[in-house]
């Protein structure tokens, strides 16, 4: 998992799967924060369901990473005992929970991205990656549907909901490019047949989905942002990441090996 | 989205969304069974909320949602006049004739 030097094919595959898993894990943690905080108890349940789908994806992938990188580490080792610089998720998923419109903007983008990502992993050379993709593809279709319905309602709802949904799209825009960066591990993964397409090749379809929803919701796509996030795939994270990890990991680290 | 929701921004009042009754048909079930109710801004979201709240453990393969307002229900006050008159009419049960021995399926 060392960055920089040319990785062996297995290590490269492990680094790629780790990035996919970290995106899912960190977003699962953020979505879990909505429990008791969503506009309605029904939405608490909906977001928790999405969170648990993502957690399930991450768990299966972490187990595979432990095999691919030869370390034999388990899911808890990856989720609970890595420091910030060892995480490979994009900045979009680590950003603090904003208002509900922001969450729907983030979910719309992330689910659109994952939708294309898992489609490109269905014929993966790695049976676990292919298996997770097959299961996750159905889950992600529902996440996409959920985000779409809310963006439509907020965008084409009241003046206030329209304004906030539009603002949410603007908020998410600087974090979008990073999803589609062809980072080193992804290039290695494509060469190894782990995934059929590079992140940049997922963009057209993913963005098309987002644009269709935005337009139907009487919203407009934001202008190209004046800055963009970068660094997540190299373990360089933004300020909220440390706080997120502290909350995620403190029980495991305070009581290593504890069970119930 | 022809009907904008009347929920003010930041509203946390559950009563601001209408109530929906949820019916789920299980895998081997023949009929949709009432499983509970929930709040949702419209029918499509009610269906999705129903999925998330009532079918998380594979309880069903089909969901109906009905606006609670659209259900006409008998009143508890009418219980006596509605249902008691049937109590002493046991002849309505098909139990007052002998089944001939040779009849196999009845």
Automatic annotation (TrEMBL), chain A:
Gene3D superfamilies named in the record: 1.20.1260.10
GO biological process terms, semicolon-separated: phenylacetate catabolic process
Pfam families assigned: PaaA_PaaC (PF05138)
One annotated Gene Ontology cellular component of this protein: cytosol
InterPro entries, per database record: Aromatic_CoA_ox/epox, Ferritin-like, Ferritin-like_SF, PaaA_PaaC, PaaC
Protein name: Phenylacetic acid degradation protein
From TrEMBL, chain B:
Pfam family, one: PaaB
Superkingdom field: Bacteria
Matches recorded under InterPro entries: PaaB (IPR009359), PaaB_sf (IPR038693)
NCBIfam families: PA_CoA_Oxy2
Name assigned to this protein: Phenylacetate-CoA oxygenase
Species the sequence originates in: Intrasporangium chromatireducens Q5-1
